[in-house]
Design a protein that fits this description.
Strands 3-2-1-4-5-7-10 form a 7-stranded parallel beta sheet, with helices on both faces. It is α/β, with parallel strands linked by helices and about 325 residues long. Helices cover about 45% and strands about 15% of the residues. It has a domain at about 1-175 and about 205-230 and about 295-310: Rossmann fold. Helix 7 (about 185-190) links the parallel strand 8 and strand 9. The radius of gyration is 19 Å and the shape is globular. It is built from 13 helices and 12 strands.
Amino acid sequence: MKVLVTGGTGFLGEHLVRQLLEDGEHQPVVLARSNSPILKSLGVTQVRGSVSEGPELEECLAGCEGVFHLAGVVSRDPDDGQRMMRTHVDGTRRLLEAAARAGVRRVVVASSSGTIAVSATERIHDERSGYATDVAAGWPYYASKIYQEKLALQLGKELGLEVVVINPSLLLGPGDRRLSSTEDVLKFLRREIPVVPHGGVNFVDVRDAAAATIAALTKGGDGERYLLGGPNWTFQEFFGRLERAAKVDAPRLRLPSKWQRWGAGLMEEVYRAAGKDSPVDKISVDMSQHFWWIDSSKASRELGFESRDPALTLVETVSYLRRNIATDL
C-alpha cells in the first residue's frame, strides 16, 4: 500500500516511517518542508512542500490508498497563532479535499490529547470527554488543534473519506532533533525549572504512539478518536522519576499556582522591557498548573496500543538529549 506521510520528518513522523519500512507492508512517501538525512539514508521518497500551498500535495497523493497527516507547527508563542491555524486548519482542509479527489480511502490525523484531556482538577479523561475549549482558549496550539479535529471529522463525512484521529499525550523517547516535545526535559537537565508545578502530566513513548498510529489506518473506526498515553503522574512524581533517570536533582520549591503565574507574567514583562526573551513564559506556567491525565483503554482495545515501561522511556530520552543535543550535560 502506497501511503503519504505529511510531516514525516518530525519526531513522530520519522519513527512512524521507520516502522512502516520495517513492517514491509507500506510504501511511504514523505511530504515535509525540509528533507531528513535519516529518511534519505533509508531510501524513502521525500518531497519538499507544504500542505498549505504548492502543487506538491497533488503529486504526492497520486496512487496513495491512505494518508498519515502529521504535519504541524508546535509552539507556545501567541505570535505563532495564525501560522498554526493556517497549517492545522487550512492545511488540513486542503489535504482532505485533495485526498478525496485522488481517491484516497482513509486519512489518519495526528492531533493531541490536549484537545480533550486538560483540567484544573485531578480528572482522568477518555474519548467521551468533550473538547477542552474553555481551558485551551488561551493556548493557541491547542485551540488550533481543536479546530483541526472538528474540521477533519466533519469534512471527512462530507467528502466520503474515512477519517481517524489519534490523540497522543506528551511524546518522549529518542530522536527529537527539533525539541518539539522534549524541550522541558532538557530544561530539567539544565536545572532551568526552579519550582514544582501544581498540575500533572501524562506522556507516551513516541515509538508506541507511532505503532498505534499505523494500526489506526486499518483498525481505527471511521470518525473515531483515540487517546494514546502512559502513566498519569503529578509533576512532583514526574520530576522525581526524572531525577532518578538523569541523576540530576529535581526542584523542591513548591509555590501556590497564582504565585507561579504572577511570577511568570512579571518575568515576561521585565525581559520584554529589556528587549530579551524571557526564560519562562506565562503560557507554559499556566499549562503546568493543569492535569493532562488520560485513559487509553479504547486504543488498547481497538488498536492494540501498548505503552512500554515509562522508566525506560525517561532513561532513553535523557540519554538521547545528552548524546545529541546537550553533550556538556
